Structures are given as C-alpha cells and as structure tokens.
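Build the 3D complex.
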Amino acid sequence: MYTFSNRLRLFAIISFALGAIMVGFSLASVPSSVEDMKAMEAAHGHGHDGDHADAGHDDAKTAHHDDHKADAADHHGDEKAHDDAHASTDHHADASHGANAGHDDAAHQDEHKLQQLQNKPWAAIYIAAFFFMMISLGVLAFYAIQRAAQAGWSPVLFRVMEGITAYIIPGTISIILLLFISGVLHWNHLFHWMDPELIREGSPTYDKLTVGKQAWLNVPWFLIRAVIYSSIWIAYRQISRRLSIRQDNATDNSNFKKNFRLAAMFLVLFLISESLMSWDWIMSFDHHWFSTLFGWYVFASMVVSGVTVIALVTIYLKSRGFLEYVNDSHLHDLAKFMFGFSIFWAYLWFSQFMLIWYSNIPEEVTYFITRIEDYNLPFFGMLALNLIFPLLILMNSDYKRLNWIIVIAGIVILFGHYIDIFNMVMPATVGPHWSIGIAEIGAILLFLGIFIFVVFTALTKAPLLPKRNPFIEESKQFHY
Amino acid sequence: MSNKVIQAMYIDDDVLMAAVKKVRQENHHIEEVFTPFPVHGLDKAMGLEPTRLAITAFMYGCVGLAVAIVMMNYIMITDWPQNIGGKPSFSYLENMPAFVPIMFELTVFFAAHLMVITFYLRSRLWPFKEAENPDPRTTDDHFLMEVSVHGNEDALKALLLETGATEIKVTEKH
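Done.
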C-alpha cells in the first residue's frame, strides 16, 4: 500500500493555495471599464499613440468575426463595406461624417480590447483546467487500450493509471463549472458565440454564421453535451476501477473479462465523445473556423501528455520504493510511447497546418494567421518542445531506460503540450494581449495542486500491484 | 597449430543456449553458431557486441534530409524561383511546409535503403554468393556450434558431449 507522503501533500496544498491567490489577484486586477483600462495603461507607461495603433492592428487580425459579418450578404454588412469604401476613397466625404465614423471605430476597438483583457485570467484558468483534465482523460484512453489489447507488459502499471484517472471527476467538473460560468452567468466572453446579441435579429452585431450554427452551438445543448461526455468518462473510470479491485480477491476471471468488454465499448464511445468534446470545448472558441482532424489532434496531445504523466508518476513511486516489479523495461515501453505519440502529434499538427497553409482559403487560414503573427514564439516554439526535443533525445534505446532522461523529456513534453492548449485557446479569447504571467502560472499551480492531491490520494486507496490479473505474472517478468 | 574446429550438433535451442554458456565458461572460443531461426538471447550468451546498424541508419537519415533540403533549395528557390500558384518562393523557410513531405520521404528512403545495403555489406550477402552453412540440416531443425580446437581435443569433445551434443565432427577449417 502506498502512503501519501506528507511533503508531497504539503506541496500540493501550497501549490493550490498559491495558485488560488495568484488567480484571485489576476481576476481582481482586470479592468472593469474602458476608462479603467486606459488609466491602467497610462500607469504602465504605454504611449497613447502606440496603444491606439496596437488596438487597430489587433482588430484587423483577430476580429475575424467582424470580417465574416462583412462577408455575409446581410444588409448591415453591405452597408458597412460601402461606408468603409466611401470613407477611405472619396475625398469629398463630409468631414463630420468621417470623424464620427473614426470615433465609433476607436470606441469599438477599445471595447474589443477590454473584453480580451477581461478574458485573460479566465482563459488562463480554462487552459489549466483543460490541460489537467486532458491528462487524466488521455491516461484513461491509454488504460482502456491496454485492457482491450490485453497487453502483457502493463498490468503492473494499472494501479498507477487508475490513480491518475481519479482526477477525471474533479477535472470534468471544473470544466463544466467554467462552461457554466461562461454560458449561463456570463462572467466572461470566452466563448464569443454565447453572446446573445450575435443571434438577435436586428442587433448591430447580428452574425448570420453564428445563427447558422445555432442548432449545435446553443448554451443548454452545449452544457448537456458536456455532462454527457463527462458521465461517459467518469462511468467507465469508476466501473473499471471497481472491477479491477474486485478482481484482486476474486476466485475466477469474470471481473477481468467484464473489464475487457467494458474497455472495448468505452473506446468506441470515447472516440466519439472525445471528438465532439474537442469541437465544443476547444474549437468553438474560434466558432467561425473548422477543421476536420481537430479531434484527432487534441487526442494526440492528450494521449502523449497522459503517457508522460504515467511515466513521471511511475518514476516517482519507484524511487520511493513502492513499485517492486516495475523495471527499466516498463519504463522503456512508456518512453517508446512518449516518443511515438510525440511524432503522431506532430504529424497531425503538420497535416492540419500544411493543408490549410497550402490551400490558403481565407475562412480557414485566419486561424493560423493570428497564431503566426501574434503567437509566433509559442506557435513554432512548441514544435521544438513537442517534436524535435523528444525526437532526438528519446530516439536512443539506452536513453529510454534512464530515469533522468525521461523526467527531463517528460517535463519538456508537458510544457510543450500546455503551450499547445495555450495556442488553441488564447488567440480567440485574448488576441494579441497574451503573456505567461501571474494568471497563467497561478492557474497551473492551482490545478497542479488539485491534481497531485487527488491522484496521490487515489493511489493510497488500493494496493499498487493488482493481484489476480491473468497477465500480472507476465508483466512482472517483462523485459525487453 | 592446425586450423581444426569441432562441429557439435544440437537439436534444441534451449540445450544450445546452455551449451554456449558452458563452453564460454570453460574458456573455449566459439567460432560460429548456425541456427535455423533467431534464438533470443544467443548473441548475449555468445558475448557478441551489440549492432551499430541503428547508428548508421540515423546518420543516413541525416544525409537524406540534407539532400532533400539542398536539392529543393537549389531548384525551387535559387535556380528558378517561379511563382507557382502564389506560393512564396523568396526563401526556403517561407515555402518550407510544401517541402516537408519530400524531406520526410527522402530521410526515410536514405535511412532505410542505405542501412539495408550496409547490412548486406557487413554480413557479406549478395546474389550468387556460395552458401556457408556446414550442414544443410542447420537450415531446418538442427543447431550447430563450431568451436576451435586449441590443445586437448578429446577433453573438448567430452565437454561438448556432456552439454547435450547429438553429433560431433572434427574438420579442418575451410
């Protein structure tokens, strides 16, 4: 039996408390109005001119909602396009009209920027919440694959995986809470499509494209779906865990067989729910954009982070002397999965990027233009973290057996996939005003604290070696 | 000193493994072992060096990548930078996504083929090469260990028989 070490528990609690304070601080220091925002900027010493240019700049790139509105053939869009052309080309335009339009535009930009700044701490919380939920979901999928494939090497790691998947409950609950806050309480503007003004006929921001997607993207159905996905995952996790523990003291293998069938069923449901989840929880931030392999892309990110966390937790527990039968061959296998799934992730990332870059269709390519222009370093930097570094360091068979190499590679991979989620969420919610500061680090610490606490508490609940698993003997003897 | 070798025949791979370990313990030099299929762990038991083929494959892959980059940089960017469907051909980096499939394939192509050729060269395999197995049964269901004779031939024979050899033949080395 594993006992939760006091030092680790203390670390988790401190991390949680510190994260909560930092997040609270960043939420409190958000500007509440345009005047507030201007005052804060003046205090920070931004020149008014530069600031203005910046606002115009970001509006042109990130507010593709507006572009689409102009494209849509409604009266408002036509009028607006006409007005713009008129104002910029006709030198005889009357001065007061031009000035007035300019004033409206600036006010609109300020409003836009204010919303983005207000979104920033929420987006940071959302990213961290999703990141840790995604890790445990990735582990759950990996665990189900191991069960369905009747893998002979992994049963000694099942309890570690079950421990990590315990986080799926607080993880999905925190996501649903955040969705509730955005959709029902409207405390933030994370999901732009949730703005009721976009679908109200006659409203100045009426958006035909959002109306077209209303059948899928409406708040009640959105929340119901979130609950459905979460219940599928939680149900599988709980039932599988119960069967796994029951198998320890069973007299036959019926629990094991049930778990096998359950895993196969779950994998079917998982692939569907995961794909839909990625459209809902990630892709709908850019609700004018769509990509068909997005679900796979998010899956690759979650499974590689999941395997990495399994490896890190295993190394930690092994170093504390709790996993007697885990040897460096098990570690080697995990490292191979880290290596392989890193490449798989890069393959999907590149497939998505290259297809869109190559065809360069305006409605698709805005997604990457905002990222390349405003998020250049994170966008391309994550390639180095998620592909090139693991590729080079985990290629060597001997390195895959060294704890410290796996720990370093694991930390780099986890950071890289955090940045990956960051790149998916931030551009649509805060535009060019991103940074990795108090809000982001605080949110990571907050959820890291919960994650460690939940995972290691779950690990104390059952013996770390499954007893009557039919493959346990093979797994104990496993060597490569 | 003559070039005599003793060829001991075995009919089971487990017996063979035990024999290899025993013979090595007694400090006899095993010239060669012929088996009809790969015997897991035999190379370790014989004390063979691990292969370096993977390292050569990595280097060949790097060569392939370099070839792809240099080739396409010369053709598409330096030599005749045409505007083909609006793709930016001002620098290699700007148009790189379009080159990645070729870079990837050439890396794999070089790594795979050159490694295979290296394997053939190092293990001296080519068409019309004369087969080297001392007994045709070693391609079907028998295992053969060749031990060089230095000193007491009878003691070595006794040792091999003791390890479970079914046949023993003393020959001059070819």
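The interface with chain A takes residues 54, 58, 86, 97-98, 100 of chain B (CB under 8 Å).
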